[in-house]
Specification:
This protein is α+β, with helices and mostly antiparallel strands. 65% of the residues lie in helices and 9% in strands. It contains 8 helices and 5 strands, in the order αβαβββαααααβα. The protein has a 5-stranded mixed sheet with strand order 1-2-4-3-5, with helices on both faces. Helix 5 (110-123) packs antiparallel against helix 6. The radius of gyration is 18 Å and the shape is elongated. The termini are far apart.
Length: 191
């Protein structure tokens, strides 16, 4: 009978979506653990930003796994910086912009809201708008974080150049459970 088959299909897709989220959370924990502690000068920038913003310092780690800075960890947000960023000629300004961007995500609890939207979307997956809600939320979060980071740097053009450099480095390897600074909408954010 059709209602039973529909319920089985709904339940199977729901379980698959929730399993995907759980795997993402597990993977995020492993990525954080595998990343190296940030050098002292990077942690000093994170401390300065936290002091200036009146917030708490966010853990910063360095990885070779991704080409874009990202924030992962709902309960204990951690900024992952690509190791290549620390070796660039404009490393200090790039790190300042990236940490400010990711700290804005942390201050807005963007990861928590993203997870909540993902769980709700999993339950209402048959509705066509549920698939756009998470993307719309992420785009809005990126815009706010971009403005905060540009204000922190005090130079919007320098921040645009940082976004462009990161977008050029991105190889497509992203973690679905984090918020990557450079995404497919970076060109839209540069304007």
């Amino acid at each position: 009978d059709w209602p039973r088959r529909g319920l089985i299909l709904y339940s199977a897709v729901l379980c698959g979506l929730l399993l995907r989220l759980a795997i993402g959370l597990f993977t995020a924990r492993r990525v954080i653990t595998a990343a190296a502690p940030a050098p002292d000068w990077v942690r000093a920038i994170a401390r300065q930003l936290a002091h200036d913003a009146g917030g708490s310092e966010i853990l910063v780690r360095v990885t070779n796994r991704f080409e874009s800075p990202m924030l992962i960890g709902v309960l204990r947000p951690t900024t992952l910086l690509p190791a290549a960023m620390l070796r660039s000629p404009s490393a200090e300004q790039d790190v300042r912009g990236a940490i400010a961007h990711e700290a804005a995500h942390a201050a807005g609890n963007d990861l928590l809201w993203d997870r909540m939207i993902a769980v709700i979307s999993a339950f209402v997956w048959p509705h066509p708008l549920s698939w756009r809600a998470r993307a719309a939320h992420r785009t809005a979060c990126e815009r706010v974080s971009d403005r905060v980071a540009a204000d922190f740097l005090g130079d919007f053009a320098a921040y645009q150049h940082l976004l462009a450099r990161i977008a050029l480095r991105v190889s497509g390897a992203t973690l679905n459970t984090g918020l990557a600074m450079a995404t497919d909408n970076t060109d839209y954010r540069l304007g």
